[in-house]
Amino acid sequence: HFIFQFIQILCITMLIVSTCNCNPVINIIKGNLSLELSQDYNSELLLKERSLAPWTYEKKQDNERVPQVIYEAQCSTSHHCTIRSKNKTSSLYSLESVPIKAKIPVLRKKSS
């Protein structure tokens, strides 16, 4: 049972990585999400660029692993920012973003 679930997860991961050229997560959600956001904010920028804590994707390649390519998000700025409220210009709100980590099942090639 565990092996079947593992193979399903692996196939889905490989499908996502293989069908996306650069930014796998953004390419998947780009369709509906970016249209709604661009109407609300009048911006063509991607979510990763407009965020209070913008990020970029770093390609991690390992030829001894399946999938061989995994994209890792990297913060573009510090994890703290301060913004002014629209209603109260004297009050400041401090925000903090925290990195999110997720374990991804991979297969390793056996060395002979």
TrEMBL record:
Highest taxon listed in the record's lineage: Eukaryota
Gene3D superfamilies, sorted: Cystine-knot cytokines
InterPro entries membership: Cystine-knot_cytokine, IL-17_fam
Keywords: Secreted, Signal
One GO MF term attached to the UniProt entry: cytokine activity
Major localization class: secreted
GO cellular component: extracellular region
Pfam family, one: IL17
Keyword presence, NADP: no
Localization per record: Secreted
Signal peptide: 1-22
SUPFAM superfamilies: Cystine-knot cytokines (SSF57501)
Similarity annotation: Belongs to the IL-17 family.
UniProt-recorded name of the protein: Uncharacterized protein
